[in-house]
Amino acid sequence: LTTFEALYVPAPIREAVSDKAWLEAMLEAERALGPDEDIFRPEEYDIAALCEQGQMDASPVVPLVRALRERAPDAHGPATSQDILDTASMLVSKRTRELVLTELDGVAAACAGLAETYRSTPMIARTLLQQAVPATFGLKAAGWLVAVVDARRRLAAVTLPVQLGGPGGTLDPADTARFAAAVGLVEPVVPWHVHRRPVAELAAALDAAAAACGKIGLDVVLLAQTEVDEVSESGGGGSSSMPHKHNPASAVLARACARLVHANAGLLTSGDYEHERAAGAWQAEWPALSAALAYAGGAAAAARRSLEGLQVNAARMEESVAGEDTGSAEALVDRALSHYREQA
Amino acid sequence: LTTFEALYVPAPIREAVSDKAWLEAMLEAERALGPDEDIFRPEEYDIAALCEQGQMDASPVVPLVRALRERAPDAHGPATSQDILDTASMLVSKRTRELVLTELDGVAAACAGLAETYRSTPMIARTLLQQAVPATFGLKAAGWLVAVVDARRRLAAVTLPVQLGGPGGTLDPADTARFAAAVGLVEPVVPWHVHRRPVAELAAALDAAAAACGKIGLDVVLLAQTEVDEVSESGGGGSSSMPHKHNPASAVLARACARLVHANAGLLTSGDYEHERAAGAWQAEWPALSAALAYAGGAAAAARRSLEGLQVNAARMEESVAGEDTGSAEALVDRALSHYREQA
Amino acid sequence: LTTFEALYVPAPIREAVSDKAWLEAMLEAERALGPDEDIFRPEEYDIAALCEQGQMDASPVVPLVRALRERAPDAHGPATSQDILDTASMLVSKRTRELVLTELDGVAAACAGLAETYRSTPMIARTLLQQAVPATFGLKAAGWLVAVVDARRRLAAVTLPVQLGGPGGTLDPADTARFAAAVGLVEPVVPWHVHRRPVAELAAALDAAAAACGKIGLDVVLLAQTEVDEVSESGGGGSSSMPHKHNPASAVLARACARLVHANAGLLTSGDYEHERAAGAWQAEWPALSAALAYAGGAAAAARRSLEGLQVNAARMEESVAGEDTGSAEALVDRALSHYREQA
Amino acid sequence: LTTFEALYVPAPIREAVSDKAWLEAMLEAERALGPDEDIFRPEEYDIAALCEQGQMDASPVVPLVRALRERAPDAHGPATSQDILDTASMLVSKRTRELVLTELDGVAAACAGLAETYRSTPMIARTLLQQAVPATFGLKAAGWLVAVVDARRRLAAVTLPVQLGGPGGTLDPADTARFAAAVGLVEPVVPWHVHRRPVAELAAALDAAAAACGKIGLDVVLLAQTEVDEVSESGGGGSSSMPHKHNPASAVLARACARLVHANAGLLTSGDYEHERAAGAWQAEWPALSAALAYAGGAAAAARRSLEGLQVNAARMEESVAGEDTGSAEALVDRALSHYREQA
Question: Is ipTM strictly over 0.95?
Fold first, then answer.
């Protein structure tokens, strides 16, 4: 359904949020709760068909459980379908987050490299897009770096809990603890069926990470303007009608992805969750969560491509500021680099 | 990428916004602008590969044009890649809108049927979810009906123009007029590369249509509560742990889809579109537009399923209001039905 | 509560959405429904106190009605408090819309003036912020013009109905018709207590109008960059630390206002409206509606200030494009001007 | 400008985000950077006039600095206007956050009280608004409690830094450290003029806190339905037309406030911040930040009012579940209470 997904999102991240990955995660949850039988192999189930059947249940898990119980009547145990889906969503989130964090590490490393290399390279600071006073290109990269480092840390810190409450949220917390250990997720204080902190906090952290990448994209786009010409993307594409052009395509895609994350994060941080299971807000989460994860990865991957191959026109930068004092720019670059190294 | 799409969206609508449909629409635009040669068959192009290659151009059209020009050097003519993508987006929108309108017609017909059948059936009106004064169930259905009819009309009225400006937006309007006629879209006053009225207006209309369906879903969910028990969905599903339950699954999915439309419409109605081609906001539109179209269709289809099989417990409704005056409820039902018939 | 409102919004528009204006509109609605007595003078009521008392009712109208009935027991008639508030919101909207439309007219006139004056002035078109091919500055202004004209027409076309349904929405439509005539609003088909087309459509139209102004702001900011230097704002401000700077302050404020409108419009176009009166979504509308109206006016006023005093550096524009063909730019300017004159 | 603010927001919080409070905070920042003279008294400056004058600068600080420098030429030091406004915004945020946290403490205490009192009181759990299996009312309150406790902790943990970079962000970090100590804010790694982590993280935390309160409001509204009748608000208001009604007014306002926070938080977490000072996104923050703070306080205050006076109909609750097993509900209540006490 998502249009042109290979344009935005690296292949491993696309796979990590695919329906196949969700199905595997659901079966992994069922396996940890079910009988010791060989009925949890993903290739035996057709997720598209389960979704189609699931329209009558507003969930693909209900038909999945039916299919499991045909094979083993005691499958699924005392869980409710939301236990399976929420646990699966956290498993998908955990794995995809790893991939997003790796892309963010790449962005941070690229920022750090630029900050070091251009620590003292004079560049005019621009306020309201007007030339203002001298700074250095290293300082600009240092600002990106701190933002990415902090966003990465925040994303990595989001707690991803297992879900196991049964329909009333009353299952024994000792069982939840065992389930958490079995699938490798955190044990929650109480079930979070209708208290969506994990989803909302993850969404906000993905949004912040994508925004940090989008800011890089914005600055690259502005610095790459024909009239400014201080940087260009090495792989920068042409256009269908003007092959000579050198577009900052990766910076553009970083910005596009950041917008897509923000739209989906907005859904994931609102939502009215009625009583013990919501009638609409919960069922809207799954596509939005996949999209937020995937486009956050896309934003990071695009910012990384943009910066890793960035061609810096230092001579051009210096033209606007030659001979002027750049204040404490270098000391601030060093602070940023220390901050980065402390996190690593 | 979109998780569980068959759960939310009817198959024909999924196909109408698929990458295959986008590719066909792009080739249709290219064909209308290109040489009279047999190079525009979709099966010759791999949209996923074009997207992957398009990362260096922030667009799948640039590699597509390269491929076309290998076959016929004068392909693509004076167009810019945005001309092709915007025209394709409007073709996809036009075709998908037809399917969404058909679903909305189904919703309206179901509302009208309920309004007529239960025109005089007493039902308590509820304000702030407290029982207030008597009305009729027909009046509630009449309110849904007017909302759906008005939203349908608004959606049908959105003008979907062709795009043809070339990179500077300076192509001859006479060519644009011919192009519009060839592909069956409207001729714009001037190119709209960075003035996104068509997209924003379509998105707002889809949002309004989905909201009208979401409101139906909300009322059905509330009326179907165990304690209220005034309606139930005939196909209403059970749950994995409580097979006896009778969930208003379609109403729930209508609400979920409405939320997904709103999130994507928010992206499509904002956006900073720089100069003559935006560097980020435009490139974020394609997945959001497909999603807004698809989930609007999903919202309508779900509301329709919910209402077409709705089981109405008139005796239960009357319990709260027996013997009381329902004011002008019947006259208002008649006004709503007239309004509906005038639109048809 | 709104921070720095005089920075963003012209004084008449601030007054038109003030609590005083809302109180007057509520009393105007009550007067049209109440006894022919002298109890509807705004100076007799303290809206802040009514709001404070209204916390126990989630509405300032309930205490207002109590105060009115102390003076005349038959005040308020068969109306429900939402009838008064919704009607007041439409009266406030109608009056503020007039002011916003006037500002938009000023923006359109300024765009038209620029389009005419610079119809043939060569300017490079920029795609993805890269210089592309020649166009004219008149064509850029023509694009702004069409967007503003279309947004203005859409805003002016939004139907603003009266509300009169009583608590169950069952009041006689003949009374509604009389009420509509008395206060100068449109008669709805049925009560719209929980079907918020008028609010949502107005919000979407305000959003579109503000976006059209924000696009102007964005282009002015980009053209005013030190390195581009093709336009500057005549009144453009300095900065606290760099008095020599010449900031495009009005363009900046137009963009800020557009963002504020979008945020509030998003609230006004979503919303779950339960049964016959919503328990939360409705009560959130009032501040958001005032804000959407006010900041839309602010966006238009700022775009107008920006353009009315715009200093155009035509010589600089021509530097990038001298001697090149600008295609059909002039013909397109003429189409835009005709479109504008047809609307006037 | 904000309509009916006394309806939503407690007076101390309204004052804490008022223009007066912003002016005081700006002067406090200027005092810490300026000469040791008696020119920083708020009563000498008219914030409304400064805002009006500030239109030409897109900021109220520029005219404020002019006024200060008339009194003392060395006022303002090497700061840029954004240093003052950002520092003021953090001071306003810090003080208002304290008030919001106090309200959240009140909500948590009320939840804890209910969880303890009704630890074993049977109540039916409801999924998709259908009666499902037995739980206890204490468990429902325990779920609210954990959500509020976690949201409170997250809000309290947001780091609020001083801003001092000068126009290029190059001021000596030692000066920033001194400034931070003087005004009682945290020292940032580097200036954050265009890296808005503090604002975005605060906004997301306010959104989460308001959402936790909105969830309480939703459940109270649903439980207070005439047909369910398991709780009612003691102060619950009537209506203008039906004085006998008993509306859950505080729960309704909690939901309304949560929606208003979410809309403003969406603005504060997006935003394109160009180069070293943004031309639009930054200037949109001030009203949105005040609104997010104020309505978060309003959501908490309303949820607190709702719960502190909640009348619980335990007999009614037991009707649906008498004699059935409530699983581990009591153990889960105890876990939630322990979690609460650990935080205190």
Answer: yes
